[in-house]
From TrEMBL:
This is Probable endolytic peptidoglycan transglycosylase RlpA. It comes from the Bacteria. Keywords: Cell wall biogenesis/degradation, Lyase, Signal. Residues 184-194 have a biased composition (Low complexity). Coiled coil: none annotated. GO terms for molecular function: lytic endotransglycosylase activity; peptidoglycan binding. Its EC number is 4.2.2.-. It is an enzyme of class 4 (lyase). Belongs to the RlpA family. It holds the Pfam family SPOR. The keyword Iron does not apply. GO terms for biological process: cell wall organization; peptidoglycan metabolic process. Lytic transglycosylase with a strong preference for naked glycan strands that lack stem peptides.
Length: 304
């Protein structure tokens, strides 16, 4: 009877450990922070340091230590969770630049990884004193509010920043003033607006799509993957790339003999060698053929 009881306890313990181990593992896509976020506050109110071994995760609490392992080359790094995110479909972790370099993610931009919880965090970070917060606010107040953004930027390829994503909530958000509090009996607040949906294979010729056009902060090199002659094919090509998790897409509109030429590129990269390595990975992992182009050598028409 005693042996049966001990055996039952042992089986129950093994089952509990198995469940715990399962909940401590996760698979998905990893990306990394763009350098422009260096020194800015995370969702937990601490400063992001690109040289530190840190990461962002949607659910794991602050201070959790996580081992991130690439599935293709088995390189791994242990990082500390100091931020919330990422909020793009399929992604499970954003790594600091130092951590991304450790597993060779800088040139690839995105990669499939396995996450393993080494030690769970339990406490929130210590908040700085009110005096220190006042000094920080004064130092961070810009002289002009033109082109300023509080969004976190995460990069997908080399040094190219991906479109910024709005944070839904932050632990550092200020409480509403007494005059803004909702009196008793007032109707419930309206439901939040629907979140944008990533369009991939669902792209249709006719429909409503939100487009955001930006000039890249710097040029360099890129990998050209298509050359098209009409808008519809351009949109379809971009949608297909989005379906494969590419959002470092560039469109070069160049003058043709009879009509404009729309060239679809991925990048940019500061170094030609980085672009060439990215081209090889595109062919190997995604069967996408392309070639490296020098963005600085492209001449555009002066016509407006």
């Amino acid at each position: 009877m005693k042996k049966r009881l001990n055996l039952s306890l042992l089986l129950a313990l093994c089952f509990t450990v198995a469940l715990s181990a399962q909940s401590n593992e996760e698979w998905g896509i990893a990306s990394y922070y763009h350098d422009s976020f260096h020194g800015k506050e995370t969702a937990y109110g601490v400063k992001y340091d690109k040289k530190a071994m840190t990461a962002a995760h949607r659910e794991l609490p602050y201070g959790t230590m996580v081992r991130v392992t690439r599935l293709d080359n088995e390189k791994s790094v242990v990082v500390k969770v100091t931020d919330k995110g990422p909020y793009k479909r399929g992604r499970v972790v954003d790594l600091s630049r130092a951590a991304a370099e450790r597993i060779g993610l800088i040139q690839d931009g995105l990669t499939e990884v396995k996450l393993e919880v080494v030690k769970r965090g339990t406490a929130a970070p210590e908040k700085p004193s009110k005096k220190a917060q006042r000094k920080e606010r004064q130092a961070s107040t810009p002289s002009s509010y033109d082109n300023t953004s509080r969004d976190r930027i995460v990069t997908d390829a080399g040094n190219a920043p991906a479109p910024a994503e709005k944070k839904v909530a932050s632990n550092t958000a200020s409480k509403p003033a007494a005059s803004e509090t909702k009196p008793k009996g007032q109707a419930k607040a309206a439901a939040p607006a629907a979140q944008p949906k990533l369009v991939g294979k669902e792209y249709q010729k006719y429909g409503l799509y939100k487009i955001s056009i930006h000039e890249p902060g710097e040029k360099g090199f890129a990998v050209q993957v298509a050359s098209l002659t009409n808008y519809e094919n351009v949109f379809k090509q971009v949608a297909d790339l989005q379906a494969k998790w590419f959002d470092n897409v560039l469109i070069s509109i160049e003058e043709g003999s009879r009509m404009p030429s729309y060239k679809v590129l991925l990048g940019p990269f500061k170094e030609e060698a980085a672009a060439e390595n990215y081209r090889k990975n595109l062919l190997k992992k995604h069967k996408i053929k392309g070639f490296v182009v020098d963005l600085n050598a492209i001449e555009y028409s002066k016509e407006r």
